Amino acid sequence: MSEIALDEERKKNNPIQSGSNNISMKKKQSSNTFEKLGFPEGMTYGHRSSLRKECSRFLRFAYLVDFLSLEALANIYTGSVRDMIERLKDLDINCDMDEVMNADFADQNQATGPSRGSDPLFKVDLALKHELPIPADEIQDELIEDFVLPPRGQSVT
Q1: How far apart are alpha carbons 130 and 109 in whole angstroms?
Q2: CA 93 centroid distance within chain
Q3: Do 47 and 4 meet the contact criterion of CB atoms below 8 Å apart?
Q4: Nearest C-alpha neighbor of 114 from the set 106, 122, 123
Q5: Do residues 81 and 89 touch, judged by C-beta distance below 8 A?
Q6: What's the first-to-final CA gap in the chain, in angstroms?
């Protein structure tokens, strides 16, 4: 039994004596929030105060745990995206497109069912917001030789 429950049980077993020297206060019988939560009936102000203190300490702890877990998840997410971008840059630089386009990505150990290369590992959706202007420092000019037109008078080979 908890300390609060023991104190309340003692008060029920030892009623307050009314006399000329003792002042007795009649407890209000109501269905308050503490009783609805399953705490003993007729809790004193001191018990309620200590309960509020413990609840506020628990809430501060819960907020701290929530903050730390969200921070950790944000770090995991940004780290994963950063690693994916670095890996894509590395693949872009070191990739031989002829070899990739002619490679067979089917899993040789899998006799039945779809091949491993048929389903994407992840899907990227892109929503372009063309109404917003692009900052000048984000624009890069790069010459793509496949799209360069020859000077006039020369034929394309």
Answers
A1: 46
A2: 34
A3: yes
A4: 106
A5: no
A6: 93
Angstrom distance (rounded) from CA 43 to CA 34: 8
Tell me the pLDDT tens digit for each residue of 124-138.
787 777 787 888 888
Report the distance separating Cα 84 and Cα 77, nearest Å: 11
The three-state secondary structure class of 89 is helix
pTM listed for this prediction = 0.37
Distance, in Å, from the CA atom of 71 to the CA atom of 152, rounded to the nearest integer, reads 59
Amino acid at 34: F
**pLDDT (tens digit, 9 = 90+) per residue, 31-72?**
577 777 788 877 788 888 888 899 999 999 999 999 999 999
CA dihedral in degrees (70, 73, 77, 80; nearest 10)? Answer: 160
**DSSP single-letter state for residue 22:** -
Give 3's DSSP letter: H
Query: If residue 55 lies in a helix (H) or strand (E), which one and from where to where?
Result: helix 45-94
Do the beta carbons of residue 35 and residue 47 sit within 8 Å? no
